[in-house]
Specification:
By secondary structure, the protein is α/β, with parallel strands linked by helices. The protein has a single domain, classed as Sugar-phosphate isomerase, RpiB/LacA/LacB (Ribose 5-phosphate Isomerase B, Chain: A), CATH 3.40.1400.10. It has 6 helices and 5 strands; from the N terminus they run E-H-E-H-E-H-E-H-E-H-H. The chain has a 5-stranded parallel beta sheet with strand order 2-1-3-5-4, sandwiched between helices. Helix 2 crosses helix 3 and helix 4 packs parallel to helix 5. It is globular. The structure holds D-ribose.
């Protein structure tokens, strides 16, 4: 299923480190309630852990098409975004409010949404997720721009 068409349907992969684990659990319930399939890549503990250990498996699942899109949470969002964006098939975009949740899909067609769990409310996280899932990629000049993101080979 195309990332552009995730309106209450599709398979979403989700991961967090210890800083995002509570929001992740709540978002899984939210997504299941909306009709999405959800694949949880962990962590499921508040014990300190290293975000790349869950970010790489999520990125690989998105790249292989095993899930339609991904959501990742850590304290600032930066560790997750930096790790995910090492994968050539990933455009991970950081969003901390609803407007950026909209634009990260409309302009950047982010196939992984990253959020800073320590700096936003859970209510804001849900609002961002809803906006990102239900916004369409605009294409056009934005398609040209995202095609220029990978390093030339
Ligand atoms: C964990 O303390 C914190 O470093 C992590 O959640 C994240 O913010 C890293 O980018």
């Amino acid at each position: 299923m195309a990332i552009n068409k995730l309106h209450n349907t599709g398979k979403i992969g989700i991961c967090s480190d210890h800083a995002g684990v509570e929001y992740k659990a709540r978002l899984i319930s939210y997504l299941l309630g909306k009709g999405y399939e959800v694949v949880n890549f962990g962590t499921d503990s508040t014990d300190s852990m290293d975000y790349p250990d869950v970010a790489h498996p999520l990125a690989e699942a998105v790249e292989k098409g095993e899930v339609d899109a991904g959501i990742a949470l850590c304290g600032t969002g930066n560790g997750m975004a930096m790790t995910l964006n090492h994968h050539p098939g990933i455009r991970a975009g950081l969003a901390w409010n609803t407007a950026i949740g909209h634009l990260v899909k409309e302009h950047n067609n982010a196939n992984v949404l990253v959020m800073p769990a320590r700096f936003i409310s859970y209510r804001m996280a849900v609002s961002i997720v809803r906006e990102w899932l239900t916004t369409d990629f605009a294409g056009g000049r934005h398609q040209r721009r995202i095609e220029k993101i990978p390093l030339p080979r």
